Structure formats: structure tokens, C-alpha cells
Amino acid sequence: MTGNNSSGARSLRFGKMVDNVLAVDGLFHDGEAFSLSGANPATPRMAALMGGLTHLARAHRHEIETIFPKVQRRVGGYNLDELLPEQPNYAHLLVGSEGTLAVSSAITLQLSPLPKHRVMGVCHFPSFRAAMETTQHIVALDPVAVELVDNNVLVLGADIPLFVKTLADITRGKPNCLLLVEFAGDDLDALRRDLKRLDQCMGDYGFPDAVVEVIEPARQKPVWEVREACLNIMMSMKGDGKPISFIEDCAVPLEHLADYTDAVTDVFSKHGTVGTWYAHASVGCLHVRPILNMKEADGVRKMRAIAEETADLVRRFKGSYSGEHGDGISRSEFVEPLFGAKLTRAFEAVKDGFDPENRLNPGKIVRPLKMDDRALMRFAPGYQTALPAAPALDWSDWGGFGGAVEMCNNNGTCRKLEGGTMCPSYRATRDEQHVTRGRANTLRLAISGQLGPDAFTSPEMKATMDLCVSCKGCKRDCPTGVDMARMKIEFQHHYYAKHGLPCANA
Ligand code: SF4
């Protein structure tokens, strides 16, 4: 999180990482250790470096003050603004540097007391725009979180056994979308009054009786689990079109949120697609993923066109192109269009000051890689999957056996060690080979020819599938509904067709 300067659903109250990091110990690109906190570097090397960069920042004061977006969620570029105060904390320059400047070895954080109580109001809206327009008025009530659950999640989540009960508990009728509004503090009665104010606010803006109160902690927990699973619920779409992340954390001022989301939706329809929206409405940082088929060149072309047009919109609405996840490969190309040439040269000077040989995470933030370079993608040009013979089971609902395997998006829920069932073989072995994700990745690489000929029916593949006990825990617990037990049946059919059935299994 320090690397990305990211934050969470409650950033309204607790800010981003840069607001919570006190010190960073780390290593330069050549292995020399350093420690950064406050404005007093411990070594002559760091003193010279930070002195030069502070001078650089102050020479760019005008650009920083006029071009850096005035939204809480600005994490793109380097934090040159943090060097402007008389007494800066130099560690803050490293926050959000995405591993491009140094390698951290210890991070000292400021802690905040947890509030004693939390209450939630689930606000129902008849349209997405209504939710976006009302967000700014809800934020004025001083909640700690306002999180969007959009129509796609409501529709897809209703088919996921894990979430059916929770969605039934918190929804009344057929809302288009929800805003989950949380108030937190030490006085429960005051929080109950906050919920009444929320209800009043919703009524004032045209939505009377549209708030479901969720006061009991035991009821709130599964609601947050639905919210946290939004990404994976969306990724549970079957077929080659998937919600793709590359503009997923742009942030705009709240007064522009409805117009921005409308305009981005128009961009999607212009390119023949739709987007799925969720998360941090409170700070204008909605996660959005247009549905694209990244196996085809046309999907990649659309991705670039949508990125360029969205970057224009973000600039028009004075927002931040990256509000949580950092620049990475997807957004670094847009640093210069959004920050301008002069600040981009200053960012390059920051990079060169720390890492003159460009050894640390090159191609991110400055001197970027191409975001549409297919050689960097999961589905490189020519990607195809094939089984060695006709499938034993009907995979048509999944878009073929390959589609079933590709449902795994590497989210890693199967590595959980507590709760649910998935995945017993991992809990026993703690080995990536024996977890749902490891099996899905091995299957995908094998059927797409990336592990050499006959990999799908190899002894190594068998070893990867052997400890799957076919409990179907993943089918229930995996947010994207990966069904490894079913895939194992398919695998065994082909494996035994090639190697014969041992007497012990006959
Ligand atoms: S079916 Fe296999 S992969 Fe899925 S949870 Fe059970 S043991 Fe793990």
C-alpha cells in the first residue's frame, strides 16, 4: 500500500498511505541502506539527494500548485508536493513511488484508534446517476465511508450462493444500485441519529424510505464482504469478455461525479461496450472496468481508445488519472498528458536521482512502457486453448473448458487459511501447486501450449491435480466460481485415456 499510496473504503477519515507513513527504511538500487523520516536525512548521500530534490520541488512550486489535481485521491506521478512544506517528511516522497526509487525494508506507520461502534445505512437508488448526484450531499453528513454497489454486482451477486442471503437482507424491492454509508464513533446513540439524518437527506433529494439500517455488527460484516467481493463478482462473468482494469481508479471532484460517470459511460457505448462501477463514491474514486475481449486485437485497440478518451475527461473535470492503484503500466503513459512536460521532466529527475541506472521497476511512472503492448499481457497474440481430444463434459455454459479455466483471475482467495472450505489441499500443504489458483494457472498454461507439447496429460499435471479432493469448496467459496472439481473430472478423462486406468482405480 505504501508503494501505491493506496487507501481503503474509509479514506474520508483516515486518508491515504502518505497521511499515515511516518518513516521508511530502505535500500538504494546499489544496496546501500537508508532511513528516512522527517526532514533530517541520516547519511550524506541521502542529504545531498533530498536537498537537490527539495530544491527541484520548490523550483516547480507553481506547476505543483496549479497542475496537481485538487482531489484527495491523487496518487499518480511522484509526491513532489510533499517536499514543499518548510519541514517536509522526506519519507513521503517514497510513498506512491511504486518500487521505482528504492526498496523498502521497514515502514513505520501512524496508528489511529478504532471507533467503538459502526452503523451502516444502505441507500437505494432507482438510477446510477441519481446515486452519483446524491453522493456529495451524503458526504456532507460526515460518514466514514460511502461505497457504491452497482447494478451489475446486484444482478451477478444474486446468482452467487455466498451472497444471496446478504443481498436479500439489505435490499428492498429492485434498486438499480446501492450506496453503503457507514458512520463510526464511540457514541452509538449519536450514530443512530446519523442514520436518521441520512434518511432525511435521502428524502430531501427525492428518495424517501430508501435507507435500510444495518446496525448490528454481525449483519454489517457480510455486507462488507459483498462490497469487498465486488471485483470478483464482476470477474465471475463467463466468456471471453471480461471487465478490464486500466482506468479503474480515476478520481474526480464530487460535484462532477455524475457528469464524469455519464461521460465515461458514453465513451464505453461509443466503443460498443459497457462498464461496471463500484467502490469509493465518497472520494470520487469509482472503480470502473469496461468489458473487453483482450484475446482479440480489437479489444486491445478499444482499450487504448477508451484510455485516451477517459484521460481527456479526467483532465476536463480536473481529476486525477490514478486515485488509488498507482500509475503502473496502464497509466504511466498518461503522466505527461496530465501533468505536462515540465513536471514530467521533474519526475524523471526524481527517478534519476534515486536510480540513475534505471534498475528498479523500470518503465513505470516515467519513461513508460506501452500500455497496449500485447507481449506484456496474459493473452499474447495467437493465444488459443485446446484439449487433446473432445471434452468429456459439456463446457458450453463456460465458453469451453478454456473459459472455465480462465475464470481464475488470480485473486488468491483460495489461499485463505480460515473460514469456508476452499482449499483444503492448500491448507494442508501451504504450497501454491496445491491450491485452486495454482491448478487453474497450470491448466491454463498447459492447454494454451505454454508448457510444451502434451503438458495437459503429463505426470506433472497429474501431480498438480492429485491433491484436489474434489470437495467443490472453490465452486462455493471462490468469488469467481472456479469449479476445479469439475475440471479435475475433465483432466482425469484425458489423462487416463492416454495412460490407462491403474488397477487401483478400476
Ligand atoms: S475442489 Fe479441489 S481445488 Fe477446489 S477447494 Fe476442493 S480441493 Fe481445492
Ordered list of secondary-structure elements with their pairings:
Elements: H1 11-14, E1 21-27, E2 33-37, H2 44-59, H3 61-67, H4 91-94, E3 103-109, E4 117-125, H5 128-139, E5 145-149, H6 151-157, H7 161-170, E6 177-185, H8 188-204, E7 211-214, H9 217-228, H10 230-235, E8 242-243, H11 257-270, E9 275-280, E10 285-292, H12 297-316, H13 328-332, H14 335-354, H15 400-406, H16 424-429, H17 436-447, H18 459-466, H19 473-477, H20 484-499
Antiparallel strand pairs: 1-2, 1-3, 4-6, 4-7, 5-6, 5-9, 8-10, 9-10
The structure holds iron/sulfur cluster.
Iron/sulfur cluster binds near residues 423, 436, 439 and 472.
Keywords:
alpha+beta, globular, FAD, FAD-bd_oxidored_4_C, Alpha-Beta Plaits, 506 residues, binds iron/sulfur cluster, 3-stranded antiparallel beta sheet, 20 helices, single chain, iron
